[in-house]
Amino acid sequence: MEITFLGTGIMGAPMARHIAQAGYAVTAWNRTAEKARPLAEHGVRVVEDPAEAAKDADVVVTMLTDGEAVEDVMAEAAPAAKEGAIWWQASTVGVSGTEAFVALAEDHGLTLVDAPVLGTKGPAEAGELVVLASGPNAAIETLTPLFEAVGSKLLTFREVPGRASNFKLVMNHWVLALTNAIAETIAFAEGVDINPACFLDTIADGPLDVGYAQMKGPGMIGSDLPVAFPLKHALKDADLILEAGDRHALDLVLAQAVRERLVAAAVEGHGDQDMGMVVAAARATSAR
Ligand code: NAP
Question: Which of 87, 157, 233, 287 could pair with 163 in a Cys bridge, judged by C-beta atoms 3.0 to 4.6 Å apart?
Answer without folding.
Answer: 157
